[in-house]
Amino acid sequence: MEKKITIAIDAMGGDNSPNKIIEGLSLFLKKNIQNDDFLINLHGDKKKIEIELNKFSISNKLIKIIHSSTEVSDDETPLTALKNSKNTSMWNCINSQLEGDADISLSAGNTGVLLVISRMILKMMSQLSKPALAGLWPNKNGMNVVLDLGANIECNDENLVEFAELGSALYKSLYPDDKPLVSLLNVGSEEIKGTEILKKAYKKLNNLSNENNFIFKGYIEGNKIMDGGANVIVTDGFTGNIALKTAEGTAKFITDNLKKTLTENILTKISLIFSYFALKKFKNRLDPRKYNGAIFLGLNGPVVKSHGGTDAKGFYHSIDLCYKIVKGKLLVQIKNNLNHLKNDKL
Amino acid sequence: MEKKITIAIDAMGGDNSPNKIIEGLSLFLKKNIQNDDFLINLHGDKKKIEIELNKFSISNKLIKIIHSSTEVSDDETPLTALKNSKNTSMWNCINSQLEGDADISLSAGNTGVLLVISRMILKMMSQLSKPALAGLWPNKNGMNVVLDLGANIECNDENLVEFAELGSALYKSLYPDDKPLVSLLNVGSEEIKGTEILKKAYKKLNNLSNENNFIFKGYIEGNKIMDGGANVIVTDGFTGNIALKTAEGTAKFITDNLKKTLTENILTKISLIFSYFALKKFKNRLDPRKYNGAIFLGLNGPVVKSHGGTDAKGFYHSIDLCYKIVKGKLLVQIKNNLNHLKNDKL
User: Fold this and answer.
1) Fold identical between A1-126+298-328 and A129-296?
2) A278 at interface of B, judged by CB pairs closer than 8 A
3) CATH fit for domain B129-297, picks 3.90.226.10, 3.40.718.10, 3.30.360.10, 3.40.50.300
4) Which of B150, B153, B282 is closest, CB to CB, to A261?
5) Is residue B313 predicted with pLDDT exceeding 90?
6) Using a CB-CB distance cutoff of 8 angstroms, which residues of chain B are in contact with residue A254?
7) How close is the nearest chain A Cα to the Cα of B64, in Å?
8) What is the 3-state secondary structure (H, E, C) of chain B?
9) pLDDT tens per residue, range B45-76
10) A residues 75-134 near B, CB within 8 Å?
11) Which of A112, A142, A329, B43 counts the highest number of beta carbons within 10 A?
């Protein structure tokens, strides 16, 4: 019998927790009623968690509660986190990986603190110089992995090459039937464009490009990210964070405008009767909750950060993401890719 | 009698020229039939231009053709431009400002070449260290000026402060009844976030903030660009270029999806009968042609770059932009703002 996938969840992180955490979990359990290859460890206030489990009628032998009497506050800063966060639900959730009790950790709590204590507890893989925060981003043909989204605001060419290997490994763990196609985000697609750091990374990635690890597709411009020509988009954390948030802001601006337009008078309201189901599908395709979950890569164990403000459905998607990542053997994929990096002459 | 606003247009730049240039001009003339405070100088192949003027029945005493026998090719690189572009329609168009024959130049031709020869001919204002490319970007309440969009891929704090002054001057020339509200694009809104360069620029802008030049609103994240809390968004050319193109790509992805959704079956097609006029307004509000025209700021004369691929309507908007910029006395506004910069202790 294969070892079960164990997901450690910080039940106390984010807005409206543990309620939305447990409601999200109930959605996950419903969708995976046929599967018994996983276990869920819930870290947090035992009493509060039990109340919510009862509310959603969850009495499942796949669930375990591990009590923590404190939690990380939203106001905590990364600077004081190490001192103040010990034995919080977030800390215990991550620490359980170190003790072999879980394969992955998930929290919707304070991002800065999560990054700091994850790195402290799980430590960086020795072959790497920086960890990265990766996210999912839809494209015309399916999904992109984009990294770094803000863990490192300044990066050199070596970091970018490592991000390409990490991102490709994540892509392979999530989409095992697809090839990772790596592109470097830049202000033009010609080889002469961009900073010296990008030019150096371009050369190295070109040399590393192969069928087993990733195919390097060169530079990509911001307006092509969603075209599907590449599916692993590599950039520094400053640019990645701004690109992602700008895309979010643009999407919101357009859909808010659309909503206003389609409810502005009696005629448009009638039109909604006819387009209701189609627009529902459209909305569903663009639903940001489907992409909820940023993956902290490069540590000796994967950590997933859910949006603090998401709801139960969003949190369900981040549990699902954790399940797929472990099922796709992310850590094995990363080790393979880092061996490739080490063996190759750069 | 006040001196007329003279706009020099490179009639040969961009796809499908001079046809779209002249069609765009005919739209401009129709909209400004009541105004006689402007003159248009068309630079390019006299015969070709005359054919198009006849096609659109333009025989206007406000139009003058200045013949150029050559034009800048799309394949020309900035490196060889200085040697090869002399006496092209683009060169003559910009050069006419130097000779006092025009107040502003407009071209839809090769961007790299336009930036290089504009800078060479018009020279940078002596108080500045770098010029910047600024664009218009819609927000919830109206319009943003965003800069730099790619003229400088690496910038220091001094450059960013200059961009704030240039962008505010542009904003005041376009929207004289509004106050410029400057924000620095960053990965977080707290003062401790971002690179050292941003932190230094933040302090300087905070000191410069005043009612006469601009109000500094601090850092802004990518998802807030369109919220209307700021209207002059300052960033380096690398980040600005990627943010703008990512927004363009996201808008296209969503509107393509929406189009597909609303034509996917007979019901949705019926819905369009009821929502037709509302959706037309929605489309019009987001039409990228309305924001066509990047403004090259910091030279001793303004130069506007139209998208090469735009159509007549897009080109009309860039002519209109030129007209408004000169009417709003951009150069006077810039000089005022640069005096402020010089007089203030940074």
Assistant:
1) yes
2) yes
3) 3.40.718.10
4) B282
5) yes
6) 250-251, 254-255, 286
7) 37
8) CCCCEEEEEECCCCCCCCHHHHHHHHHHHHHCCCCCCEEEEEEECHHHHHHHHHHCCCCCCCEEEEECCECCCCCCCHHHHHHHCCCEHHHHHHHHHHCCCCCEEEECCCHHHHHHHHHHHHCECCCCCCCEEEEEEEECCEEEEEECCCCCCCCCHHHHHHHHHHHHHHHHHHCCCCCCEEEEECCCCCCCCCCHHHHHHHHHHHHHCECCCEEEEEEECHHHCCCCCCCEEECCHHHHHHHHHHHHHHHHHHHHHHHHHHCCCHHHHHHHHHHHHHHHHHHHHHCHHHHCCEEEECECCCEEECCCCCCHHHHHHHHHHHHHHHHCCHHHHHHHHHHHHHHCCC
9) 999 999 999 999 987 789 999 999 999 988 88
10) none
11) B43
| pTM recorded for the entire structure | 0.91
Superfamily (CATH) of domain A129-296: Isopropylmalate Dehydrogenase (3.40.718.10)
CA-nearest residue to B220 within chain A is A242
Residue of B138, B223, B286 lying closest to A245 (CB–CB): B223
Domain boundaries, chain B: 1-124+299-308, 129-297
Instruction: Give the architecture (CATH level 2) of B1-124+299-308.
Output: 3-Layer(aba) Sandwich (3.40)
Those of residues 190-209 in A touching chain B at CB distance below 8 A are 194-195
Structure confidence at residue B345 as a pLDDT band (50, 70, 90) = very low
Minimum-distance CB partner of A223 among B153, B249, B285: B249
Chain B closest-CA separation from residue A195 CA (Å): 7
Give the type of residue at A155: C
B283 lies within 8 A of chain A by CB = no
For residue A224, list chain B residues with Cβ-Cβ distance below 8 A: 245, 249
pLDDT at residue number A345? 45
Which residues from A are below 8 Å from B255, CB to CB? 254
User: Which architecture does CATH list for A1-126+298-328?
Assistant: 3-Layer(aba) Sandwich (3.40)
pLDDT tens digit string along B234-268?
A: 999 999 999 999 999 999 999 888 888 888 888 88
Segment 130-159 of chain A within 8 Å of chain B by CB: 138, 140, 150, 153-154
Report residues of chain A scoring pLDDT below 70. Answer: 1, 343-346
